[in-house]
Design goal:
The complex is a heterotetramer, with two copies of chain A (355 residues) and two copies of chain B (331 residues).
Chain A: H1 28-53, H2 67-75, E1 82-84, H3 90-95, H4 100-107, E2 121-122, H5 132-146, E3 152-157, H6 164-175, E4 180-186, E5 189-190, E6 193-194, H7 195-198, E7 215-219, H8 223-238, E8 244-249, H9 269-277, H10 280-290, H11 296-319, H12 327-330, H13 338-352
Parallel strand pairs in A: 1-2, 1-3, 3-4, 4-8, 7-8
Antiparallel strand pairs in A: 5-6
Helix pairs in contact in A: 1-2, 1-10, 1-11, 2-8, 4-11, 5-6
Chain B: E1 7-11, H1 12-26, E2 30-34, H2 50-54, E3 59-61, H3 66-78, E4 82-86, H4 97-104, H5 107-110, E5 120-125, H6 141-144, E6 150-152, H7 157-169, E7 174-179, E8 187-191, E9 203-206, E10 211-215, H8 219-232, E11 237-241, E12 244-246, H9 250-260, E13 263-270, H10 276-287, E14 296-300, H11 311-314, H12 318-330
Parallel strand pairs in B: 2-3, 2-4, 4-5, 5-7, 6-7, 10-11, 10-13, 13-14
Antiparallel strand pairs in B: 1-8, 6-12, 9-11
Helix pairs in contact in B: 1-7, 3-4, 8-12, 9-10
The structure holds thiamine diphosphate (2 copies) and magnesium ion (MG) (2 copies).
Keywords (chains B, D): Oxidoreductase, Pyruvate, Thiamine pyrophosphate
Protein name (chains B, D): Pyruvate dehydrogenase E1 component beta subunit
Domain Transketolase-like pyrimidine-binding (chains B, D): 10-185
Chain lengths: 355, 331, 355, 331
């Protein structure tokens, strides 16, 4: 099946546009916009890792290497669309307008981290693998029932395709023609388990055939391919043509999470090779250089801006009022049950009495 | 509780249909989802006629995929709908357990109320109708141990309608258990139109000063039978139908036990880990000094619900309930 | 995709062999053998329905119309293979050597019904849909690990393909090249839900593509197609080439179970049409007639023999010692826990005391 | 219990590795299955080095598919193998709940012993290690309410090895819970080679006549802390580590409660429906007349286990345990 699902790309590793259909659409403005977003989320990612190392946040899941997949797909969304990310997709969430402070709060074990900015339909990151896929199908189905043109996007990894919820979510969406894009980031590992132990197929895109749904395999490090393909899938969705499965082939350079040691299960030289050759940011840099439009100053400016924004978010996260333990009781039900009232009262009494 | 004027005599399952009809009519956000609920009207006919009346857009046959449609129900619920999902039998809810445990019950908490899941899951449950294995499970306790979801279980047509309407109007997820054995075993006057029964409140079915007997669902008629027989023997039971299994009606339990000092709990689920133990804990916490005898539990055994050839042996019977009442009386 | 998965057949509705590759293989002996099996299980099915109507057994799931699928597939198994049936596959189980008495006991709510004859590796019928699919994958994987040539067959319906366990079982088997045949009987309904509401695809066979596993769509009422295709899939399995998905397109004439009323959701005239045209037994009769080998006497004999065998089994079922309630305690664990000992003792005391 | 001669000092997680190594070595039917257990040695390194030692045929990385590999494990178990399955965190066992509930725990019953499932499911559980949400659940009660499966939970390296070997040798399915908080918090002498601890037997960790304190898993160290502090105040606790959650050690519980008349139960699971209520039921059934005070339960709250920023507030602490001990003493 592999040859039926070639890895499609618009821009090659050297920053050349290899699909002339898109030549006009790829403007300096767009390149710079994507570049800026990718730099911003990469700086965030690195900062977050160092915060974790310093004990300022908890376990963290980095996405470095997957920026093109996350930025390209999120940029294709419209204001009123829904996003269902995993723990590794806060790059996409930030691109779509999530609050950096809140994302940091999430990684610091605070519920506020799951609250999106008002009006932003971003679901909390799915921790149990693949469970968000049926949610996205349902939320998209709701939009269809309401008769809007809004769509949903669900993010998930290669490992997630093995779960029953992947199958049930895609089947549900295909039966009800829900306007949803199933956006798979095939970073080729589920923690330590490589793609070829996860499944017998060489592609994830072909799994769409099981639902008579379009499935495409794209270079997940080519931000343009990601962007235009997601845009296309969203258009189909908005027109009532149903869901699409996109497999964005990519790679995470680093560890699964800060609690993981990738050297246990793979040779990390692959990551450094990919950094040299297939890095999504480098690729845009090469385009800019090829076009003679690379401007170090500009790069410096956007880097500084991003760093400042992130530092600001970190400060806000750290200045955030300390956890009020009562919060653990306050959102279980709309109205607390007697158990919760009683337990809260007793607990506060004990707290008051000093521990 | 507001009661409409007109009333009709109906069975429990008809009362469920009536409640669904009432709410489909009242709120266009109400959607029914499940296997075979459309043309077929559900395997117990609980949704009979509703697809014809409200259309395929409101009464939706889903693929055979409990995790899928409960998960999608969560998506519908956070996006403005009020899904009422039928699980064909409680014993087939397990594939959806993860969705209920990690999402339906937690999304409010996880997002501090930003997203909520006003969803109802209806599920026929229990043994005694000669159904094949797994169809007869009574595993409410795996949901009462799950903060963020309420669990209700009517035993009469009147309660069935009122509790289902309350469940649909509840802003949080509710598991609504339907005792199959009671579906058509009795009829009762049920008001037309909308009324609701407060979730969390039990119902005193018989008054007596000697023993408190606490039960719910399909064990209610068995308990009443036993209590009536005991009455002839001059032992007077306070019979409580809990109606809600989470949160339990602590006040009603405590008040009754403090009056009688003797308690029998009856349920068809396994003894170990059954909701009966939560009742026991309430008694321990509220009424220790009033207790004149240890609590007796009459329950299904700590064995899987057996094949139907043996289910009468598994289920509590009026005889077993009476023996327990006599035991606490004699203590 | 439908055209990639045409419904394959060897014998047409008129009993003509339309695939010459098989002409030699289809002997009078084989035809009669299959005919005999199909008649036997059909008589059983009808008897069981009437037993249910008389209250002599509980709810029953009939398979009339699906005999070719069940007989053809079961006949392809070898002695030491494993069978994982559903509640509707006791036709296959009987063909593979299950005890008729025990099958009747199953439908009468007795545990003995799940016990296969010694040495027969037939699992109890799966009641929760699709759950047997991973079991079959695991049992087959075990055979592979032991280095045997044994294989497993898992039966399931069209509705079952929507469950996560279908997906997870097929993925597991494909990754570990488990020697298992996933035998789908697409009878086009899951209780009342028709195929086109169950999935967006026109075939089930194509779902094999999601696992890079061979998938074939066959006429499930053509016993030869079923037999030879299953044989082929089993051979692949035995050779270590992994699993196969077979979609046998068929139809149940009657109700989902005796508790079901099909007229609520479909026009039963379709069933009578199919009875005339596509009936699996009729088709063999036509072959025999075409070949001038149809022998009414022989038919009468096999019918009588089957009826006698079934009557005998019914008598054995009804003479079976009455349920000893203690059995509900005796097989929960190898050694009963104190709860079970105590509950059993109390219960037996109560029983003794008269209820 | 046979104890080998040599011993090594090790942590709880090392004792688990040692038990797996021992059994992989002893019985070729033993297979390990799970996510990331191969090269990676498991996310907690519980299987570290075992794939290198026993090969990919014995220590098997599975696809990310809990229902799939637990279901396949059932197939392996009925076909002669002894699968030991790792669920990465107990909070991720829910997708496999149906397989465990309707098959693993019932196949012996369904087939009158013709097919059996000698399978072990290992699962790290509990809060207090600053893990992300869902990773911290302590939902043992949804398995103790499931006839046909045993549930064990060691709190020390010695018990961890002995119980895991017993679980692997048990002819029935066993859920083996691993308190993450104890994985590396203490070391202890662990005998080399094979020994086992009987499933169903608790362990008396401290002797005292005043109060019985019953707990298990990660709450053991907290309880010991509290009991030691109480000892300084001259209140002497009988501290029981249950070790097995189904079937509970009824005799040890009854004996102790009949001695002290006062009981505190400590667990991190939610109060409602927690295994603590089964302990309460045993006390009710066996020791009613000995009780001098209502049982106190110190538990996780009836709220989802919170994000780790708040988990210290959710978990029972020595201070809360002490207060409960004081309360039953003062009653
Ligand atoms: C149901 C479930 N099982 C196991 C885990 C533990 N776990 C967390 S991430 C992960 C791997 C996910 O891999 P993939 O889907 O490829 O996403 P990636 O992490 O590569 O982005 C696993 C096994 C989980 N979170 N949920
Ligand atoms: C998990 C689960 N959900 C629901 C049911 C109820 N149920 C029994 S049979 C059936 C339909 C099955 O359809 P299909 O797989 O096509 O098999 P068929 O009955 O047509 O042979 C349903 C929904 C069940 N047994 N298990
Ligand atoms: Mg991955
Ligand atoms: Mg079918």
């Amino acid at each position: 099946m592999e040859n039926h699902f070639p890895i499609r790309r618009i821009m090659d590793e050297n920053g050349h546009i290899i699909n002339s259909d898109y030549e006009e659409k790829i403007t300096e403005k767009l390149v710079k916009e994507f570049y800026r977003h990718m730099v911003r989320i990469r700086i965030f990612d690195r900062k977050a890792i160092s915060l974790q190392r310093q004990g300022r946040i908890g376990t963290y899941a980095p996405y470095e290497g997957q920026e093109a997949s996350q930025v390209g797909s999120a940029a294709a969304l419209r204001e009123n669309d829904w996003m269902f990310p995993t723990y590794r997709d806060h790059g996409a969430a930030m691109t779509f307008g999530h609050s950096l402070r809140n994302i940091l709060l999430f990684w610091n074990g605070r519920n506020e981290g799951c609250v999106p900015p008002e009006g932003k339909k971003i679901f909390p990151p799915a921790i149990p693998i693949a469970t968000q896929i049926p949610h996205a199908a349902g939320a998209a189905f709701a939009e269809r029932k309401k008769g809007t043109v809004n769509a949903a996007i669900a993010y998930f990894g290669d490992g997630a395709t093995s779960e029953g919820d992947f199958h049930e979510g895609l089947n549900f969406a295909s039966v009800f023609k829900a306007p949803v894009v199933f956006f798979n980031q095939n970073n080729q590992y589920a923690i330590s388990v490589p793609f070829n132990k996860q499944m017998n197929t060489k592609t994830i895109a072909q799994k769409a055939l099981a639902y008579d749904m379009p499935g495409v395999r794209i270079d997940g490090n080519d931000v343009f391919m990601v962007y235009f393909e997601t845009l296309h899938a969203l258009e189909r969705a908005r027109k009532g043509e149903g869901p699409t499965l996109i497999e964005a082939v990519t790679w995470r350079y680093g560890a699964h999470t800060t609690a993981d040691d990738p050297s246990k299960y793979r040779n990390q030289s692959e990551s450094s090779n990919r950094r040299q050759e297939a890095d999504p940011i480098l690729r845009l840099e090469r385009w800019l250089k090829n076009m003679g439009r690379f401007d170090e100053k500009w790069v410096q400016t956007i880097e500084e801006k991003a760093a400042a924004e992130i530092d600001q978010a970190i400060a806000e996260m750290e200045d955030f009022p300390p956890a009020d333990p009562a919060v653990i009781f306050d959102h279980v039900f709309a109205e607390p049950t007697w158990q919760i009232r009683q337990q809260k009262e007793e607990y506060l009494k004990q707290m008051g009495g000093g521990r | 509780m507001k009661t409409a004027v007109e009333a009709k005599t109906m069975t429990l399952v008809q009362a469920i249909t009536d409640a669904l009809d009432t709410m489909l009519n009242e709120k266009e956000e109400v959607l029914l989802l499940g296997e075979d609920i459309g043309k077929n009207g559900g395997v117990f006919r609980a949704t009979d006629g509703l697809q014809a009346k409200y259309g395929e857009g409101r009464v939706i046959d889903t693929p055979l995929s409990e995790a899928g449609f409960v998960g999608a129900g969560i998506g519908l619920a956070v996006n403005g709908f009020l899904p009422v999902i039928e699980i064909q039998f409680l014993g087939f809810i397990y594939p959806a357990y993860e969705q209920i445990m990690t999402h339906a019950s937690r999304i409010r908490m996880r997002t501090m109320g930003h997203f909520t899941v006003p969803m109802v899951i209806r599920a026929p449950y229990g043994a005694g109708v000669r159904a094949p294995e797994i169809h007869c499970d009574s595993t409410e306790a795996i949901f009462t141990h799950m903060p963020g979801i309420k669990v209700v279980c009517p035993s009469s047509p009147y309660d069935a309608k009122g509790l289902l309407i309350a469940a649909i109007e509840d802003p949080d997820p509710v598991l609504y258990l339907e005792p199959m054995r009671c579906y058509r075993s009795a009829k009762e006057e049920v008001p037309e139109g909308k009324y609701s029964i407060e979730i969390g409140k039990g119902n005193k079915l018989m008054e007596g000063d000697d023993v408190t007997v606490i039960t719910w669902g399909a064990m209610v008629p068995e308990t009443i039978k036993a209590a009536k027989l005991m009455k002839e023997k001059n032992t007077h039971c306070d019979v409580i139908d809990l109606r809600t299994l989470f949160p339990l009606d602590k006040d009603m339990i405590a008040e009754s036990v403090q009056k009688t000092g003797r308690t029998v709990i009856v349920h068809e689920a396994h003894a170990t880990g059954g909701v009966g133990n939560d009742v026991l804990a309430i008694i321990n916490d509220t009424s220790f000094l009033y207790q004149k005898a240890p609590v007796e539990r009459v329950t299904g055994f700590d064995a899987p619900v057996p094949y139907f050839g043996f289910e009468d042996h598994y289920l509590p019977t009026p005889a077993r309930i009476q023996q327990a009442i006599e035991k606490v009386m004699k203590f």
